[in-house]
Specification:
Two copies of one chain form a homodimer. Chain A has a six-stranded antiparallel β-sheet with strand order 3-4-6-7-8-5, covered by helices on one side. Chain A has a two-stranded antiparallel sheet with strand order 1-2. The first copy, chain A, is an alpha+beta fold and 189 residues long. In chain A, 49% of the residues are buried. The first copy, chain A, is built from three helices and eight strands; from the N terminus they run ααββββαββββ. The first copy, chain A, is 26% helix and 28% strand. The interface between A and B is large, with 89 and 89 residues.
Chain lengths: 189, 189
């Protein structure tokens, strides 16, 4: 049910950016949104969503800004793990992720690549944190176009996983990335 | 007026992630949000917001995912330019930007640093595009805490601006960044 709400809010975000309705309609809609927020705020988690256990023991990061199904800011990305150790995600980014006109903000590409490269190092109950991340931008990444992010492990050295990957559209790679992801010995951060 | 709507939607996003109300309330609120989206969609820009000229000739990137005042996904960052050529932005990130529990997603730090480092190279009517960006994560960046991102130009070589910067909380730097930003000779991307 929170999934439906988050999906509704994603559509609202897009319409908020692109709407051209008059000031009176904007005021009426804003009032209605404030009413909705008040309803939802009748009972709130004290802080952020964090990671919560599902009834069957899975760790759910539903509030995560990249993959969180109940976070309207997340596209949300669905990261699939291949049998060959690669990970990938297929997605389309709309007006909410704009940088240069008509294009995905370079920093959003970094956000997605950080997550997808990091996913190569993650293990259940044993998260990996980004140590370093390097992005190389080859050309603009278009909005409203099918995109794929993919990554694989280049090598592992002790607690460090070295991963490489990229984002591509139908015409090829737009951004390349490499990163070092670290399994901390103790809980961190 | 779009500013007020975007601010209302930002509060709604936070409540959507953190709410614990019952299924019936979620359904009622979702219906109301869908109604609001329908009202706003009576007149929509055909695509993303892009960059539009204000009546006094300023270029406005109101839909930008980092600084766009009418983009609810943007915090929005207000980037200030110092007399000494440095740029900085003060901000607080809430539950919508979460990665590790209680902390800002490392990729969101990359998104903000890409923008703030890039701002050192931007000139009116002459945007700069990210060539490469390297992030070094020193420790977790906390949510709901005053943060500052700052950057300055290290050197300029032809069309390339080399910039460095970081994000810090009250206890010091959490993420360092360096990037190369390029002024294209022709229009790009």
């Amino acid at each position: 049910m929170n999934d439906r709400l988050a999906q509704s809010v994603r559509r609202l975000i897009d319409a908020t950016i692109r709407t051209q309705v008059d000031v009176q309609t904007l005021a009426t809609v804003s009032d209605k949104i404030d009413w909705a927020t008040e309803q939802l705020s009748a009972s709130l988690l004290p802080g952020s969503f964090g990671v919560q256990q599902s009834p069957d023991g899975q760790s759910l990061a539903l509030g995560n800004v990249v993959i969180g199904r109940r976070n309207p800011v997340a596209p949300p990305l669905v990261v699939a793990e291949g049998a060959d150790g690669t990970v990938h995600a297929d997605f389309v980014l709309n007006a909410a992720y704009e940088g240069p006109p008509g294009h995905v903000h370079g920093g959003v590409c970094a956000l997605i690549l950080d997550h997808v490269l990091g996913a190569t190092a993650h293990q259940p109950g044993r998260p990996a944190y980004t140590g370093t991340l390097t992005l190389r931008y080859l050309r603009g990444t278009p909005l409203s176009t099918p995109l794929r992010a993919q990554a694989h492990v280049d090598r592992i050295d002790g607690s460090k996983t070295f991963a490489v990957g990229h984002i591509a559209d139908a015409e090829g790679v737009t951004v390349q990335a490499e990163g070092v992801f670290i399994h901390p010995k103790e809980s961190r951060p």
